[in-house]
Design a protein that fits this description.
With 472 residues, this protein is of the alpha+beta class. 49% of the residues lie in helices and 18% in strands. It is built from 14 helices and 11 strands. Strands 6, 7, 8, 9 and 10 form a 5-stranded antiparallel beta sheet that branches. α6 crosses α8, α8 packs across α11 and α9 packs antiparallel against α10.
């Protein structure tokens, strides 16, 4: 086999490869001998079909199969001999071929650039540690208590803050509609959680009283014909309860699933920290990635940049692609550059993601989504690309953890207000990128939508989380 560099420009190399016809003939003869033991043809005993007969019937198919295998083996050998790390699939152009002829072809390949890595000592980044003030925890406990009030029966007229329990039958223009009946409906007067202005009309009612209440159905009512229409509710009050005084003590904490009040405070503090951790870790990651890009200059394989650009823009309209082409190309180049450099750090430090690592991460996701275990497992089993994306994310995480262990990482204590400000600034900077960020969205949105937690959690969510944490 003869291999020559025909042309080299930047990262693009064109190799000329010639495979001697004698080698091809030898492979053809070997294939014919193999088929002779396998082919059954009418008029011949098994294993006794003459090679000439096999060739006459299957010659073109045999030649094509042999040439495909030779192309694969010889092109791999050519790249290995010339020490080329291919960036993507090489292009093969057949020049001459055919039985009795040398196989002559060219390989056009984009190679991965050589990257000279910066020393870890050059990097500096902040690790943000959230300092949660006692008053924040106390406010959150009050919020939890407020949303988990208990009530006691009363024999007086209802007032704001009371719980009214009632049955109702509703109509619009004298006609019933779907959802117009309700039993044991519970409303806390003043929370306005049923229909706008409804609960305030329950002020002053007594147990066993009947009352007619008229309000407008909402504009977004499912039945469009009834949206914003005046509805009449015939209500029968079955009970009235007053709120009990809330005492935040060990008993209250136990009712929330904690061991005692101190434990409840620790659980809430942990929950608040968890809510901010992902965003604060993203700030540290950005500081590291910005420096990685700054400290390295490298040529980029154009085919990888083009692929990344296509992934970012393939769902956009043509005019939108053209309008933002310069900006998106820059983003694509940045991603490819960071990917190449991070991968080089990973290879140089022998970092790998095992099947066990992937299984552990899937199990972690399952634990964080109680009741949806089958959905998570099915998602990864039916979407190999999602598993590959997860593997890539774990690999990146390992590399970044390596950086954190090696670089000058300064621990920085910040308050919630400072964290909010930093996160807000970070979100403004990354707003333009987020619309195009495909790295984990196409494969993982279905799961992420169920996983992600906003920083402004409701008290009910916190209570559920507290109970879950306390059982671990």
């Amino acid at each position: 086999m003869k291999i020559e560099v025909q042309k080299k420009k930047g990262l693009t190399t064109i190799l000329s490869v010639i495979v001697d016809k004698k080698i091809i003939q030898k492979k053809l003869d070997e294939k014919l001998s193999q088929l002779q033991t396998e082919v059954s043809l009418k008029g011949f005993r098994p294993g006794k079909v003459p090679p000439a007969v096999i060739k006459s019937q299957f010659g073109k198919a045999i030649y094509g199969e042999v040439i495909d295998k030779i192309l694969q083996e010889s092109s791999n050998k050519a790249l290995e001999e010339k020490k080329i790390k291919a960036a993507g699939q090489p292009k093969i152009d057949l020049k001459t071929f055919g039985e009795g002829k040398d196989l002559n072809y060219t390989i056009e390949v984009n190679s991965l650039p050589e990257v000279k890595l910066a020393n870890f000592e050059k990097y500096n980044a902040n690790e943000y540690l959230l300092k949660i003030e006692n008053k924040i925890v106390d406010e959150k406990i009050k919020e939890v208590a407020k949303n988990n009030k208990t009530f006691t029966d009363k024999n007086e007229k209802s007032k704001k803050g009371d719980l009214v329990i009632f049955n109702y039958s509703a109509s619009v223009s004298g006609k019933k509609f779907e959802g117009s009946e309700g039993k044991n409906t519970r409303l806390v007067i003043g929370e306005d959680l049923f229909l706008k202005g409804f609960d305030e009309k329950l002020i002053g009612v007594t147990k066993e009283e009947s009352k007619t209440i008229e309000v407008n159905l909402p504009e977004n009512y499912p039945n469009k014909e009834l949206a914003n229409k005046r509805a009449k509710f015939e209500c029968k009050i079955t009970n009235i309860q007053k709120p009990n005084e809330i005492i935040v003590d060990d008993t209250f904490a136990k009712n929330m699933g904690a061991k005692n009040l101190t434990d409840l405070k620790l659980l809430i503090e942990k929950q608040i920290s968890t809510q901010y951790k992902q965003s604060l870790d993203s700030l540290t990651k950005k500081e590291i990635l910005d420096q990685i890009e700054k400290f390295h200059k490298t040529e980029l394989p154009q085919n990888l940049v083009d692929q990344e650009f296509h992934l970012m823009t393939h769902q956009l309209k043509k005019e939108e692609v053209e309008k933002n082409k310069t900006k998106n190309l820059k983003i694509a180049e940045s991603r490819i550059k960071l990917g190449l450099i991070l991968n080089e750090y990973g290879e140089k430090n022998n970092l790998k993601v095992s099947d066990e690592d992937v299984k552990a991460e899937v199990q972690k996701q399952i634990k964080g989504m109680p009741g949806q275990e089958k959905m998570v497992l099915d998602y990864y089993q039916k979407n190999p690309s999602a598993t590959q994306s997860l593997k890539g994310a774990l690999y990146e995480e390992k590399i970044l953890n390596l950086f954190k262990s090696k670089i000058n990482l300064k621990k920085k204590n910040i308050t919630i207000n400072e964290a909010e400000k930093l996160i807000s600034e970070f979100n403004k900077l990354s707003k333009d990128l987020s619309a195009h960020n495909h790295k984990h969205d196409d494969n993982d949105n279905e799961i992420k939508e169920n996983k992600e937690k906003k920083t402004s959690k409701s008290s009910v969510d916190i209570r559920k989380k507290i109970k879950k944490v306390s059982k671990k």
